[in-house]
Every structure is written in structure tokens, then in C-alpha cells.
Amino acid sequence: MALGQSNTGKKGGIDDNLRKVFQSTLDEDIPDRFKDLLNQLKNQDSTASAEGDRK
User: For the Anti-sigma factor NepR domain, which residue ranges apply (predicted)?
Assistant: First the structure.
């Protein structure tokens, strides 16, 4: 087996493993606490925007 073939096989395995790890991270759900925080921030922006419109 040539040296280049060995490295190519290893690189392909590393690439595949990295794709699996990153894809599993993308597939994870957002925690409820984080969703609640995002909603609170959205409500604050809406309230601030509405108050700014009144001025």
C-alpha cells in the first residue's frame, strides 16, 4: 500500500467523523430556558419599539 493511499483513507475517516459530530450538534434541540430567554428579549424589543413610536 502506498503512503498516499493510507493518508487519504485516514483523512476521509476524519472528515466523516467531523461531519457526524457537527451534524449531531446542529440536530440538538434548543433548551427551554434558552427559548424563554429569547422570548423575553423579543418582548423587551417590542415594548421598547412601541414606546419609541409614542415619542
Answer: 14-45
Give the start-to-end residue ranges of the domains of the chain: 10-52
List, for the chain, all residue ranges whose pLDDT scores fall below the cut of 70. Answer: 1-8, 53-55
CA geometry: angle 9, 21, 32, nearest 5 deg? 175
| Plot region of 4 (φ>0 → left; ψ -120 to 50 → alpha; else → beta) | alpha
Is the overall model pTM greater than 0.85, yes or no?
A: no
Say how many Å lie between the first and final Cα of the chain, rounded: 76
Q: In whole angstroms, what is the distance from residue 51 CA to residue 33 CA?
A: 27
Helices marked H in the chain: 3-27, 32-54
